[in-house]
Each structure stands twice: as C-alpha cells, then as structure tokens.
Amino acid sequence: MRSVTTSRSLCTVTAALLVALTPTTPASSAGEPVPTVFLGDGAVAGYGIAPLDESRLPCVRAAENLPDVIEDQLADQSVLLDVTADVSCAGAALHHVWEEQDLGDGVTPAPPQKRALTKDTRLVVAGLGAHTVGLGRILKQCSARLRGRDGALLPDEAVDPESPAADCAAYFTKGAGAGWLTKRFEQADKDLEKLFSEIGSESPSAKVVLVGPPRLVPEDVTRCRAALPDGGGRPLADVPKTAWGFLDEQVQARLNSLMAARARTAGAHFVDLYAATGAATACDGTDRAIGGLLEPSGATLLHQRLPWFLHPNETGRDANGDAVAQSIATAVYGLAPS
Q1: For a Cys-Cys bond, which of 8, 14, 186, 226 suits 326, CB 3.0-4.6 Å?
Q2: Is residue 338 in a domain?
Q3: Tally of domains in the chain
Q4: pLDDT mean by block of 10 residues, the chain; 338 residues
Q5: Distances (CA, A) of 294 to 27, 115, 279
Q6: Cα separation, 317 vs 268, whole angstroms
Q7: Is the dihedral of CA 158, 163, 168, 172 positive or negative?
Q8: CATH code of the domain in which 182 resides
Q9: Is 129 part of any domain?
Q10: Where does the secretion signal sit in this chain (predicted)?
Q11: Which residues, 6 or more positions from 182, have their beta carbon under 8 angstroms from its beta carbon?
C-alpha cells in the first residue's frame, strides 16, 4: 500500500457523505484483506496529478490516485484492501467497462475494465459516467479555446462546430443540442444498468460502490467570475457565463441524480460527492478541489504540461478519497463514523 502524503484540507466533507444504508457484514479483520477492484475514468485515475504512473502512461494515471487514498484511509479504520486491480483510465466511459478503450493512433487499446473482475472479488468501486453523457463534447461546444490548440489533448469534438461557443447554453436547452443531450442521458441510463449487470455477472459476491462526480460549478455561479489565485486565467476559461448554471444543473446534477437512482435500484451503495463538494468547486480559489479549465496541472506527458479539464486536483483527490473511504466503512461495513 502506498502512502499518500498530500495534506487533506477538505476531509471535513466526509460527514456529509454518510448515506442512510442498512449496514451489512462487519469489516474484515486486519488478517482478512478484501479483494478489491477499482473501475473508473480520469477522476479516479488522477489525471493531471504528478507524478504519473509510468507503467500506465496511455491512461494518464497518477502514481498516487483516488484508489490509493481510499485504501490508505480504510486501513486506518481496520478495513484492509487487497487491491487486485486498478484499471481506471482517463477518458473512460461506462461502456469501456465491457468494451476496449481507444487510446489514440498507434497505442494499444485498453482492454475492457471488467476483465479485472473475478469470482473472488469482494469489493468493486466504480467512478464513471461523465464521458458517457458527453461532458468533454459539451465543454468543447461551450469553449472556443477548447476547439483550438488549447483543447488538442481533449479528444472529444464539439457537438456542432458550426454553432458558436457563445451560444452553447441556448443550443443545449432550446436548439438541436437539447435532443442530443436527452439521448446521451438515455444512453447513460442504459449503460449504468448494464454496468451493474456486468459486475454482478463477473463478481457475484462483491459489494458494489458507485462514486458520483464531485461538483464543478457552485450554486452561486458569481464565484466563477474571479480569476484563479495563481493568475492562470478564470476557473471556467472562456465558457460563457450563460452556460455556467446549465453545466451544473442540466449536466452534473442530472447525472448525479441518475447515478444515485440506478445504484439504489441495483442495491449498490452510492457515494454522493456532488452534494458535499459545493464549497470546493473549480470556482473556489485557494480552496478549489477541481483544477480550473485549461489551468496548467502538475503533470507532464511527452514533455508537455497537461492542462486541467475540470478534474480533481491533489486537494480534491485527498478529500474525495477520504470521503469515499468513510462512506464505505460506515455504510458498507457497518463501522461507526471515525
């Protein structure tokens, strides 16, 4: 188990994440590690956090990512994990759990994430969904900078390049984008259902935890007007003000509700990060737990500094990991809150 040394200044959010769920079997003793598999996208993999795991470069996975924090924090509560696989990969959508993931020209695709699951797996922690609803494509629809060279490392394309970025809120709420977005959420609903089915088929004895997305835009969107403290631009770059509320309410909150409902139907445990991270969004200055859009991250790949695409930064990784671990310990293993 690797030690995570970054300070966890936002660990107080864990209290808000204790979901009312009937406790199951008590936690394993120190002598009984729980065979565990982590599935996920860039938020789980730790995109943008240095140093990178050199053995997983195509997936841009951090050497110390969300699973490391979760493992570390659960160990403090006498829940030891035997992490048999962490197959999280930047850019992964829900369907990459059962289909291979294209990682670019000349790069071997990432195999379906479900291949890491076995009959012996006893805990599955999954964090995916944003790419299925098309968050990257939505951001490119709303940002002229992302459509140019600044967005070259974000492989998604704008939904309609002919529609101006400045009009994206109207495009998605009144224009052709509204139907596109509806279809993306319909697909996410089907894929979430299939996610639980695939996990149940491969690992029928596993407890399943679905981790929701941390909040990107605060309820008070005026906080997004302030420049980033280090002078790296504005938290949402050139995304128009008219789209800030849309991103929060019609994309993130809607996805969070869908994930919670699907987890409940499947009998899985849902960790509601969105509900607890409203004071640590990309727009919260020195307290931000999300890297500002196009803000330089700490990671370098192929001699190029990676920009943030609204992924959790080190502070967010640590706070979210603490929160997920506390929620698992309490709701899944029946331990008293620490």
Answers
A1: 14
A2: no
A3: 1
A4: 43 36 43 92 97 90 98 96 98 98 90 98 98 98 96 94 97 97 98 98 98 97 94 91 97 98 98 97 97 95 90 98 97 88
A5: 41, 33, 20
A6: 22
A7: negative
A8: 3.40.50.1110
A9: yes
A10: 1-29
A11: none
Residue 208 · residue 269 · CB < 8 Å: yes
- At which residue do the structure tokens 């379906």 appear? 112
Q: Which conformational region is residue 337 in: left (phi greater than 0), alpha (psi within -120 to 50 degrees), or beta?
A: beta
Which residue, 11, 10, 5, 95, is CA-closest to 51? 5
Residue 87 lies in a domain: yes
Rounded-to-integer distance, Cα 128 and Cα 140, Å: 20
Instruction: State the number of CA atoms in the 13 A half-sphere of 220 facing the CB.
Output: 6
Which stretches does DSSP call E strand in 110-151?
Answer: 123-127
Give the pLDDT confidence score for residue 56 in this predicted structure: 83
- Nearest residue to 136 via CA among 272, 281, 311, 275: 311
Distance from the Cα of residue 281 to its chain's centroid: 13
Residue (of 129, 139, 147, 197) closest to 172 by Cα position:
139
Residue 44: left if φ>0, alpha if ψ -120 to 50, beta else—which one? alpha
Closest C-alpha among 207, 242, 184 to residue 331: 207
Range of the domain at 209: 11-332
Residues pairing with 110 in the sheet: 101
Q: How far apart are CA 327 and CA 333, in angstroms?
A: 9
Query: What is the residue whose two structure tokens read 């795991």?
Result: 53
Q: Tell me the C-alpha distance between 284 and 215, whole Å.
A: 11
Give the pLDDT confidence score for residue 6 in this predicted structure: 41
What is the pLDDT, as a whole number, of residue 112?
A: 98
Predicted TM-score (pTM) of the model is: 0.90
Give the span between the Cα atoms of 116 and 109, in whole angstroms: 15
For tokens 């909040």, name the residue: 215
